[in-house]
Automatic annotation (TrEMBL):
The keyword Oxidoreductase applies. The lineage of its organism: Eukaryota, Viridiplantae, Streptophyta, Embryophyta, Tracheophyta. PANTHER family: MITOCHONDRIAL PEPTIDE METHIONINE SULFOXIDE REDUCTASE, PEPTIDE-METHIONINE (S)-S-OXIDE REDUCTASE. One of its GO terms (molecular function) is peptide-methionine (S)-S-oxide reductase activity. Belongs to the MsrA Met sulfoxide reductase family. It holds the Pfam family PMSR. It comes from Herrania umbratica. This is peptide-methionine (S)-S-oxide reductase. GO terms for cellular component: cytoplasm. It is an enzyme of class 1 (oxidoreductase). Residues 36-186 form the Peptide methionine sulphoxide reductase MsrA domain. GO terms for biological process: cellular response to oxidative stress. Its EC number is 1.8.4.11. InterPro entries: Met_Sox_Rdtase_MsrA_dom, Met_Sox_Rdtase_MsrA_sf, MsrA_MetSO_reductase.
Length: 249
């Protein structure tokens, strides 16, 4: 797995070329158009990847939500003693995707009828929940849930919960899990700290694509290359190698 510098530390080499960051699409979005949402749906690795592929999502981060401990560790959360659940923070451009649309997508990228999410004790860190910060979001989450329930013959166990405590960032190794498992691609992006990894839109998109099955990965990555011509040449080269390596699988 790719080795990041300690959490939220800047690169030690100030001359390190971080061309990917300077051309990151997120830097051109007006601040008034940026919104955030928090979702929980089982393991945060897959959930982060699923949201990362969505058009309009510009950043994602894995973490813990719903508990009172300020800086819980993954082990503490998994032991079910902190009240936290694995969650994903989604930063999005409201001009391209709405909170309601994200809720609709949420049902597609995890099993919202899994009864294991209702258990208490050791498994409390795995939940299905939509966290809201305002009444309008609660209403939209509820409307989305009703719409989804009408299409299913099993009861949805997802809860809509207010964000009562801060979202706690997960450890380095849990950020962009699928991307971190491709060292060459990570190195080509020149992202050295957890903060850079979390803030990068391109890392967000690539992580989502790498989590897909082979055929979809080829299609999505090919389209991604066409629309991101300003990426570093080394990054483009590694992406093309991934496409070739995915053929026939």
């Amino acid at each position: 797995m790719y080795q990041l510098l300690p959490q939220f530390n800047a690169p030690q080499d100030s001359n390190l070329p971080i061309s990917e960051i300077s051309s990151d699409p997120a830097t051109t979005i007006p601040s008034e158009c940026v919104r955030e949402a928090v979702f929980a749906g089982g393991s945060f690795w897959g959930l982060e990847a699923g949201f990362g592929r969505v058009d309009g999502v510009i950043k994602t981060a894995t973490g813990y939500c719903g508990g009172t401990l300020k800086k819980p560790s993954y082990r503490e959360v998994c032991e079910g003693k902190t009240g936290h659940t694995e969650a994903v923070k989604v930063i999005y451009d409201k001009r391209k995707v709405s909170f309601r649309s994200l809720c609709d997508i949420f049902w597609e990228i995890h099993d919202c009828t899994n009864k294991d999410y209702l258990k208490f004790g050791l498994s409390t860190h795995l939940r299905s929940a939509i966290f809201y910060s305002m009444e309008e979001e609660r209403k939209q989450a509820q409307e989305s849930r009703i719409g989804r329930q009408m299409k299913l013959n099993r009861r949805i166990v997802t809860k809509a919960l207010p964000i009562e405590y801060d979202f706690c960032m997960a450890e380095n190794q849990h950020q962009k899990y699928y991307l971190q498992n491709n060292n060459r691609l990570c190195e080509s992006l020149n992202l050295r700290s957890t903060e850079q990894f979390v803030e990068s839109t391109i890392a967000c998109k690539l992580n989502g694509i790498l989590a897909m099955e082979a055929r979809s990965r080829i299609e999505k990555l090919t389209a991604f290359l066409r629309t991101n011509e300003t990426m570093a040449e080394e990054t483009k080269l590694v992406c093309k190698e991934i496409i070739e390596g995915s053929k026939g699988k």
